[in-house]
Amino acid sequence: MDSAVVQRVIQALDLVYSSDTSVEQRREAEAVCQQVRNDPEALAYGFYLANPGNQYPAMVRHFGLQVVEHAIRHRWGGTNNGLDAQGCVAIRDKVLELIFNLTREDKPYIREKLVSILVMLIVRAWLSAGWTNLSEQLMRLYSQSAEGREMALSVWRTLGEEMFVYDRDPVVTIRKSHLTNGIVGALLPKSVVVELYPSGYRLSSDTTTPTTTGGGKKSKAVSLVVLEPGNEEGWLLRWAQYASELTASSAGMKELGDARETQLVAVIDTIAVYVEWVPIRALVSTQLIPRLAAALLVRSDVVRRRASEALETISRRNIASGEDRDTVLLQMAQQPEALSAIAQAYGTTLPNAVHNFWDDSSEALVVARSLAMVCANLVIMHWTRKKLDTNVLPQPEQFVELLVAMSRDTRYTVAAPVWGCWGTGILKHAAVARVPQVASAFGALTEHATQALFGLCRAAHVLHQGNHGSAGVDEDEAAEFESVGELRGFLTGDVRGRLLGIVRGMCQIDPAGFVGWILPSLAPVFGSSDQPMAVVEAAFMIVDTVLAALDEFEQHALEESDSVRMAQVQEARAPCYELGRLVVQFACPQGDDVQLATRQLSTLPSFAFLLRPNSINNSTDGAPRDLLMAVLQKCASCLHSSSNDLALVVARRATAALVRIASTIPDSLMLVYTDLSQLVQERIADPAVSQSVKSYLREFQLALIAGATTCSLPERKALAQPVIQPMVQALKTLSSLSLQSPTAFIEFLGLPHLDQAFASNGSVDEEARARRGQLSATLSTLYICLNRTLGNSDTGLAAVWSDYVDDLAQPILLLIRCIHALWNSAHWQHLPWQSAQAHDRLFGIAADGISTDDTTVAGGPAAKEARDVQNSLAVLRGHAYRCLGKLVHLPELFSGSDDMANNFTGCLFADAPSLTARHWRLLLVEVMRPVLRTVGNWPGQDMSSGSRRGVDAVAAFIPAWLGPLFAFCTEQLGAEWQALAQRNSQPTTNSERDVGTEITRDAVIRDWTRAWSQLLAELLSSIVYWIPDATQIEHDLMSSARVAIDVANKPNTGNPALGSWLLHTPDMFAATLTACLSALRFSDTQAVNRTVMLLASLTPSLALIALMPMYEPPSPALVSTATSYTSRLDSSLTVSSNGTCSSIFAWLVSDCVSALAAVLRDPLLIDVQDHVLLGVADLVYFSASIVERMPVNWSFRHSSGANTSNVAGDPGLAFRHAVLSSLLASLDNVDRVSAENTFALIVGESESKRRRALLRVALQPALAVEKSKLFDDKTQAKPAKPKHLSANEHDVDGSWSNKLAGHNASVLDNDEHFDLSSLLP
């Protein structure tokens, strides 16, 4: 060890942590620190710097521990200066020595770092031959002093978090099973271990591993719980007793000292890490639940909060089977000590008592909410769990009383969980709901729920008006929300839903009785127009919920042929018709607020279940028909006036209500179609009704025609013709006038007249504005109708639209082409423009859409008209794209595939270089994805065999534009991302406008990239449709009988016709895979993650298929199975004509692995690493399937000929070596021998998570993982708890910690245990 190096490190650390250091000095200092970390003698330097005997400052000691931690993390398992279990044991002794020599003066971050290192060593080496006495060592520390006990607790707590909370260290995944057995043996009392595992444990001193062999399978190690001699009572009991001692000694204290509070918090936090998974019987034997409940009564806010959180964790335990499945419920809700403590602790949190028992009322709220969650979990997950048809709580009186009390809590965040457990648990569980003690609470519960709902609506209304003080919300509760809007959203969302759940549940228990009870309460509300808005709104919600509950109740009764329940529904119908009459006749107050009117219109479709055809036909008094007509007339009455924005909102809600009714009961509407048609035509002819509302009325008509089951196809065509024909004719007329050339379109838009207006400051062309509005309205109506009646599945109007497909497609393609031409200046710069705005940017239309600069002259009628043109074009572009994306659902569109392909290609690429990123994003999302998802995949195709008609349609339409699209988007996006990287590397300006422009530009490029990844995902999904995952292929190859590959019932996540065509078109298949790999270069996490996930699913299957021709199947059945897979791809992809590796083989081991390795190196794609590692690990694993895991002998093929490969030896082994070579060529700092050993381990590892972890450990030195990422993972995985300072700690000005932020920040500051502020005065 060089002393000069030590001095350089100390000097470097002084520079790193000095606020006066320049950026260049800090960079050089960090380089010195990094050199020490990577030095072969790093461990020696680390322990020397960390040794308190050398009297270095705390920051130097901490860095020394960082060096030790870095060496352990990055050298474990390697062959080049690597560490093994024995090496870790040697380091352990030095770490324990440092821990035992700690003093009170040592900084907390020194202690935490030592604990972190010891836990890292435990994960790697504990239970090996050299380390079998962990409990003994920690027991010595535990018994040494109060500080030693706290350190021992910290070790166990950190170990539990590493194992079961965070997912940071891949070694945990590799050794998790072994470590879990050791932790179970260490935590549980020996008596419990013997009871639970009578033949499944061993002593830690017995290092032999018993094996079992059977059925011709390889020997497999038996997983045994490990018991250490001398630890018979177990750590869990030890902690429980310690907690009880502290709790008992704290009884009666009005104030808990800092030391005692710290001790209690430490032991409860340690217990809390393990209670989520430790066997339930251990909780019972250690009396942990009542002991934690007793801690709720200690006079310390933080202790009570920690105890309530631990109990909440236990209550979440999901024990679906076994003899212990009811233990948690009985221990908490039945045992007097625990239930009494919970109830007593909850009582202290109530607003009228909180100041007598709590130092901080906000802490009381947290504990009350946690205890409410405990009770709610006990109900949902234990008392009323699924598949339980009995009551397992013999004496529920006190527990029900506590639930009722909590449901009356005025704090919404406390009461909401309990309301939820009533509505979704108790009221829906027949056995529990019939318990007398439970049923007796229903009356009070229902009354309180309805009152609370009225109060909640009032509070939400007050908050909406911005009057927070009079909303009646608890102050501490309101302070937890960042804004009034967030609080209001919580009340109107989650809380309101839980209250309505109680209403729904009570209605389904006794339909007629509940409706009869609620009707007298609602009648006065709807009978008067001067009721408060909040009251009326709540009444509408109750009506909506009641009707939905009755509808669901009736459906279940019909499905089960339950005559009793049908009679109950029939009895409830009469008051429901009366309720409907009240709702329809309610007159909303006139004013600017249309909330009540929209709520009323939203409620009307809920009456549809009362208005089904059989109800109308079988009614003797005509009540259903009268109500139906009243509902329709009410909706129609809201369409008369649309003179302002609020009236348009009401009109739109009315048409939405009509569409919902048409979708729900179309056959009922057909019974009154004559009157209904007249009503609709009156509104369409009414000039006071806006054009947009008329569009939605046509949508209503078509939705009704599409859903009517009583209409034949000719009848549908006859009914739809008056609705569709005007739209088609209008589009054809406008097309003939304006879409024959870009110049004609410019004239149609009125741009020449606008140019004159700019040049002379004259008036605008009103006729041009009217033309634009007419075209926008026509396209808008068309899209609305297509979207409603021509979706992703077969509808009743598909055959109707087919008659008009030619008349619709051509004008839309022409419109798209004309719109695109506006962005190409070659089409308009030669025209005789007079104004600078026209000649330069065509009034801002041809701008890139990214700059925040105003693209038109501010003010004046011409500028306003220019903005109107821009808005009109945005609407036309969006609707044209979407209409085309809907029309591709019609096979008739492709009847002349050559013409359609040429027109489509011309539409896409005529002006492609001039189009902006927004154009391409919309094109990809609205047009090309629907095309790829739909072409050839029409209803009625035989998906199991790949319809020839569908494949032929794909072959005729797709090739003309898909290849050019790959080339264009890959090149353009590559250039955009390169430019983005260059801009990001340049110094930023202080201009807010420039910053906004860059943010917008970044967002637009990312949107385009994500749309591109979605399109590639459609292609990969279509390929995956025909290629099962590798696990299924392996299973089929291991079967002794012929296995038919069934894709008929496979989820329709891709286009089978497209997939079949791609697999049998080598050039396009290769182009697709190449485009996918190229897309991995664009550093957008969302886009890359989507592509990598599909590649990780597909590539192992391709590897198996590529290797199959290199082996000789041992039986005819397996020959048939292998052939069934290879035949799904073109033979040139799986077999090479010159006897070398196939193209898929070469692509996998070269292009694919190199591209995935590049993702591993990209620091911007850290979140994608797990999927990449899993994909590579699966490639390695499944390449050994045919030889390593087959029960029969597959032989290698070495003969010459077209059906062979010139790979010597095992082709799978050659494949893995090629993968390894390609991977190592792309990654630095990875030891080849270690990687080869890892590959060998992966081949024999069946668990995918462990395979991924093995690969992560091997590639750790080369992965783009930052310490800051590890820190982020920890803070995100578990919410940080508020810091409570002990007596010897003090707060430090946070500005000191922030001086090194931004570009001056050191990577050393990202250490999860280090706080720079603790070094400063």
From TrEMBL:
Membrane-spanning segments: none
Official protein name in the record: Karyopherin
InterPro entries: ARM-like, ARM-type_fold, Exportin-5_C, XPO1/5
Source organism per UniProt: Coemansia pectinata
GO biological process: protein export from nucleus; RNA export from nucleus
Domain Exportin-5 C-terminal span(s) in chain numbering: 477-1098
GO cellular component, one term: cytoplasm
Domain of life: Eukaryota
SUPFAM superfamilies, per the entry: ARM repeat
PANTHER family: EXPORTIN 1/5, EXPORTIN-5
Taxonomy of the source species: Eukaryota, Fungi, Fungi incertae sedis, Zoopagomycota, Kickxellomycotina
GO molecular function: nuclear export signal receptor activity; RNA binding
